[in-house]
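agent> Task received from the user: take the single chain below, predict its 3D structure, and emit C-alpha cells. No templates, no multimer pairing.
agent> Plan: (1) validate residues, (2) run structure prediction, (3) serialize to C-alpha cells, (4) report one or two observations.
agent> Step 1 OK, no nonstandard residues flagged.
tool_call: predict_structure(input=
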Amino acid sequence: MANPKFMKPLTPSAELAAIVGSAPLPRTEVVKKLWDYIKKNGLQDKVNKRNINADDKLMPIFGKKQVSMFEMTGLVSKHLK
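)
tool_result: status=success, residues=81
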C-alpha cells in the first residue's frame, strides 16, 4: 500500500512551479515531472548519469551547478508545502 504521506498533494514554490506547474501535486508526481524536464532538456550528466546539471530553472531549486539524484529529492522537498 502506498504511504498516504507521499500521496498528499503539496504546493510547489514559485521556482519549482516554473518546471512542474503551480497546481498541488503528490511528491511522487513532482519527482516524475522533474525527471521528464531533466530528460527533455538533456540535463543528466553524460559521464555520471546519477548527476543532474542545473539549468537556469533548476539553479534556484538546487542552489548549485550539479546535484546527485539522491540529493535532488531532499532539495525538492524544501520547495514543497
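agent> Step 4: summary for the user.
The beta strands are 9-10, 25-26, 51-53, 66-68.
agent> Done.
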